[in-house]
Amino acid sequence: MTDLRYPIGKFRWDGAMTDARREECVSRIAAAPGLLRAAVSGLDDRQLDTPYRPGGWTLRQVVHHVPDSHLNAYCRFKLAITENEPTIKPYDETAWAELPDVKAVPISTSLTLLDAVHERWVAILRGMKPSDFERFLVHPESGRQTLDQVLALYAWHGPHHIAHITSLRQRNGW
Amino acid sequence: MTDLRYPIGKFRWDGAMTDARREECVSRIAAAPGLLRAAVSGLDDRQLDTPYRPGGWTLRQVVHHVPDSHLNAYCRFKLAITENEPTIKPYDETAWAELPDVKAVPISTSLTLLDAVHERWVAILRGMKPSDFERFLVHPESGRQTLDQVLALYAWHGPHHIAHITSLRQRNGW
Amino acid sequence: MTDLRYPIGKFRWDGAMTDARREECVSRIAAAPGLLRAAVSGLDDRQLDTPYRPGGWTLRQVVHHVPDSHLNAYCRFKLAITENEPTIKPYDETAWAELPDVKAVPISTSLTLLDAVHERWVAILRGMKPSDFERFLVHPESGRQTLDQVLALYAWHGPHHIAHITSLRQRNGW
Amino acid sequence: MTDLRYPIGKFRWDGAMTDARREECVSRIAAAPGLLRAAVSGLDDRQLDTPYRPGGWTLRQVVHHVPDSHLNAYCRFKLAITENEPTIKPYDETAWAELPDVKAVPISTSLTLLDAVHERWVAILRGMKPSDFERFLVHPESGRQTLDQVLALYAWHGPHHIAHITSLRQRNGW
After folding, report:
1. Global pTM value
2. Does C112 sit within 8 Å of B117, measured CB to CB?
3. Which residues in chain A are contacts of C112 at CB distance < 8 A?
4. pLDDT tens across B144-161, in order?
């Protein structure tokens, strides 16, 4: 039986990275804004206010969450490149998803926000040497990790949330 | 042998339209900006300056052409809804693809332009009654046609150009 | 007594154009999207639904009108550069301002649309030689006119509508 | 003699805040993206690569810096609203201004990024009660401060950088 929370499976990190896999991760990150935009195309307000699973975020919350998450990721890469093993600041994604911008701001704004953040983020990623991906950041809860691991996480994170949307649309025949 | 000019086939209009097919056409138009954005993600300048087929437009020209075409289409719908069988003004797409904005402006601007034009266009399409799609416009060369036909044409046109890009990427292993 | 319809005065064309005046017109066109965005910043829905003068368009209609007008202008320049004295297709701006996209689409989308159209339009304008501005288009009602005249018209048109908004804000203390 | 680094003066915080002053700060933040866009309109690459003062950032660096700074500010507000006196993570703005996205990404992307971040940030600010502005965050270097102080800082920060650009344009007759 499928766990609706993980339509493409949980993120797993096996510690292995190659140039080809890095390139594929960057490509996935580059493609995510367009795929998210296509995934929500044509949805009306009632559909956007539907939870992607019972008890889960609404599609609207999912859309606004993705740029919140990825602008934090963008900052974490820049921090880890410009500082020595910085301890980054996590945020409470559950609480952020309840803040008033989620209802007040149209999703088109967050789609555009994601486009723009990814464009700058991908420029950073493409400017990094292989050794830069071996730099560390420290997450107060999940610990010390390489940028390779963070890269793989976010290459998974976009498709993960996009699949929340596309799988609900499929189940509901939208 | 495949004709590289028509990766998804030529547009054909059989004159038949139903509510369901209309809805599908609108959905395709709504999805096109995200799919175009995903189709070009991660391409560098050299790749963008590659023709999608020998003698054809470069990918860069394709990307800038799509919003030029669709903002004209958006206007044609508005004209046909607010006037009685207006004669629309065609444009020389070959000449427009050689104008200097194509080289001077980054493709991200045209992707954003397409997002925004489609958002207003789709709002128009979703606000139309079935009888509105039976209204006519007159194209000086191809003649009098219903908005149903124009709708079907543009539901094909986005995926047509997107396939120019994705099929080249596949052939070149990009 | 001020005519609220013309806060910066009516457009006047005296037929004179110089390189410096052309440059100033292009600069005004380039600056308009930012100034429109600043002019509406912080307005709420009730304010946006207020007519800029008794019996006039609401601020929301004004904002959506500007990109509709300017994407037509952008096309007219491209037509006149690529064809010999083309007859352009006017549109019924009064009817367009009543179409459903005006209510359905957030103004942020039209502000972004304006940014993107102007970026391509300004690239065209900056790529034109002085002699290109002496090319003609034919407006079915107002007749044959040079691109210099059209340029001057649109250099006035953005500030004209921006002043509708800023003058109402000033009168209402918003 | 004017200090070119501080064209509108240094930021000063006197600890006093009123509802009216808060409202004015939010309005300044809301207006900043449009004013920045207008401030750089029509600049060419050579002009963008000119330092705003001898030894200072280029205009291009200034433009890319503003959204980097403000997306951090946006996060700090959300952190301080959802956590109890969080210690935020500063970033090295000097080092970030040298990262490769600054040269690789067109300024139009960062202008659009700023539009979108401000739209969500302003929605947060408008959703805050007066008591929310009395919440604290802790900056590792500058210490514990209220959101009122952070608000005033960023209401100054946008115009501060915009004035770097407009004052150079004025001095250079651009």
Report:
1. 0.95
2. no
3. 112
4. 999 999 999 999 999 999
